[in-house]
Amino acid sequence: MFSLFAPNSKLIVLLTICAVVLFVLVFIFQTPSTSLGIVMPGHQPSESFILVTSGSDFPLDNLPYGVFSTSANPTRRIGVAIGDQVLDLSALTDKFLNHELFIKNNKNVFAQSTLNDFMSLGRDAWATARQTLTRILSATEPDLRDDESLRGRAFVKQSDAIMHLPCHIGDYTDFYSSREHATNVGTMFRGADNALPPNWLHLPIGYHGRASSIVVSGTDIRRPVGQTRPDESKPPVYGPCKALDFELEMAFFIGPGNTLGQPIPIEKAHEHIFGMVLMNDWSARDIQKWEYQPLGPFLGKSFATTISPWIVTMDALAPFLVDNVPQSPSVLPYLQHTDRFSYDIRLRVDLQGTDLLGQKPVSVSNFKYLYWTMKQQLAHHTSNGCNLRPGDLLGSGTISGPAKSERGSLLELSWGSKEPIDLGNGVTRTFLRDGDTVTLNGVCDNGSIRLGFGPCTGKVLPALEI
User: Active-site residue numbers?
Assistant: First the structure.
């Protein structure tokens, strides 16, 4: 026996061992496992057991869908972004995503290489999938968190993921929904008194784009070659575009489609909208100027359109709903809706070039500035009976705001190249140069929830020799 109140070497050794054991237990259960990106309950900045750093675009409140592969596994799979990880949904089809709602043509939609089948299922399936993913990624749910073997198969670092187009895009339509953009462009070409065409305030103007040249973020963009007429007193010439531009846009994907001949009423339009991406609709302004009459854009637009890889769902965007822009005169009944369907999405365009030190911001804007809502675009698009299909893409058109800094294209920012944009250190731009990289970003933040879309990036390559 030994006294607790008297010096004793055995007591000292015992107390030391207890202290070491206690320290190890505290370290194990309260310290993030950074190598796995796992955070234990009660000690994380987000609500997921996956570490989500402050300012991440992909918290548990987001859960956007995309399609990815890796160099080790080139098979394309459907994934969800969470923190700096991608959750491979094909690894969860047996245990978690095996609901009968997710079966189409006797196949699980999450075992496919595109999102089209899942998009086609509609809101009940989308909501069930979101609820399931939110639950199993929660810090308080042990099913996936504590299954080390499944975690090893299901998670891939985003830095190791090769992103692809999220779905097969059968058709693509681009609208002209920003009043500020339409006014700016109209003023430059027709004068302030005739800036808006007579139909602009009565219907969402759009045109049918080229789906085959839609590419995922990170794809290089070749400067197009085409026919232009720089001198109106001389015949046209053929050569590289000299007025290459970006357009700051967003776009939404169609979920369930409609039967040919059956319009989608505006009251049900939201049921057909799956989610949104950032979009840069690259534009060859000099080619477009010469070719566009009388049928509208053609080769000046069809050479490339870049979208961000992650589709942010409408459920994720619901906390950021804001009032629609007031419309006057009143639109026709088939375009009228009183529910809010505009979103506070803060947008930014950065430019990096060989003559610039780092990225330079050139434009900021907001999706909420759009005059025409997505519901109105969809209802008008199908009003003649046109059938839309899962995976079809509908673009907003350039998103400009009331301030000069909020103009969504170089055409507007440089006012038709008459006012070069000062990027510092004597560097200016009117239009894009070879080697320029354009990056779009979009963020929602209401003070309690912050989420983003990830970057939408493309680098301009020189035109091919002719």
Answer: 181
